[in-house]
UniProtKB/TrEMBL annotation:
<feature type="compositionally biased region" description="Low complexity">
    <location>
        <begin position="11"/>
        <end position="20"/>
    </location>
</feature>
<feature type="domain" description="Glutamyl/glutaminyl-tRNA synthetase class Ib catalytic">
    <location>
        <begin position="13"/>
        <end position="257"/>
    </location>
</feature>
<keyword id="KW-0479">Metal-binding</keyword>
<keyword id="KW-0862">Zinc</keyword>
<dbReference type="GO" id="GO:0005524">
    <property type="term" value="F:ATP binding"/>
</dbReference>
<dbReference type="GO" id="GO:0004818">
    <property type="term" value="F:glutamate-tRNA ligase activity"/>
</dbReference>
<dbReference type="GO" id="GO:0005829">
    <property type="term" value="C:cytosol"/>
</dbReference>
<dbReference type="InterPro" id="IPR049940">
    <property type="entry name" value="GluQ/Sye"/>
</dbReference>
<keyword id="KW-0067">ATP-binding</keyword>
<dbReference type="InterPro" id="IPR001412">
    <property type="entry name" value="aa-tRNA-synth_I_CS"/>
</dbReference>
<keyword id="KW-0648">Protein biosynthesis</keyword>
<protein>
    <submittedName>
        <fullName>tRNA glutamyl-Q(34) synthetase GluQRS</fullName>
        <ecNumber>6.1.1.-</ecNumber>
    </submittedName>
</protein>
<keyword id="KW-0436">Ligase</keyword>
<dbReference type="InterPro" id="IPR000924">
    <property type="entry name" value="Glu/Gln-tRNA-synth"/>
</dbReference>
<keyword id="KW-0547">Nucleotide-binding</keyword>
<dbReference type="Pfam" id="PF00749">
    <property type="entry name" value="tRNA-synt_1c"/>
</dbReference>
<comment type="similarity">
    <text>Belongs to the class-I aminoacyl-tRNA synthetase family.</text>
</comment>
Amino acid sequence: MTDLDPPARPPATTRFAPSPNGGLHLGHAWSAIMAQDLAHAAGGRFLLRIEDIDGTRSRPELADVFRRDLEWLGLEWDEVAPQSTRTARYDAAAEQLRALGLLYPCRCSRAEIAAAATRSGPDGLVYPGTCRRAQIDPQREEVAWRIDMARALQLTGPLRWTDALAGDQQARPEAAGDVILVRKDRDTPASYHLAATLDDADDGVTLVTRGMDLFEASHIHRLLQTLLQLPVPIWHHHPLLIDSDGRKLAKRRNAPTLADRREAGEDGRALAEDLRTGRLPAGLSLGSAVESDPCR
Ligand code: GLU
């Protein structure tokens, strides 16, 4: 296996990939505007992908609200297939990794992991490896599938990736441990890591733009790209919009949505221009608050 470096294509195709489990807020607007402007400046394409893989949390009606929000901001995009239509692809990739001997079934509950874990990583508690060598029949029990990170790294050797802002990176997916790639919950077949990595490759994304809160995830995605023989993009992890408490804007903390602003009669194009030129609404600034992201 070889480390595909430098990236196979020029950095021209970007995407905005919201999860329809809550309304978009200013942080999303900032991310979408940046992704569009970077693509268009390079003469490339800006894609919208609805990440509706989470069957229990996704609210299908929100996809249309998102489209209206982006239109209101004056953005132009090409929409690609939502994640819910791509499950056969995720299953096939998981099968490929199983065939390489890199996935193992795990029956542990969250509570069991919390009791046994000894450290935290960028993806939450690092899995203590309880099921790594256990005899488990996946036909008879509900299991998640985890990647055997040490084995995977033996196969790929050291990998590097490039962030347009932070520069050259040595991939260190081992910091996250044996993350889940196929979830136990049948309503959500693939994990964020597996789905997003495959989708970006299939959609021809060459510049993965997203917030710095997902920087650590890219170490894992870089590994999956080599294991699954996918092209390697460049990443652009942008600073986050943070509130006066130093926390990133979040749906779960009731940040006002773009739809609320739109319905209140605010001018979306003017707002987009303000964000582009750094005129941020009162109380907000750009920063690097690092918290785990709800989409994982
Ligand atoms: N769907 C994720 C979210 O809404 C974004 C994932 C990504 O940009 O890679 O937070």
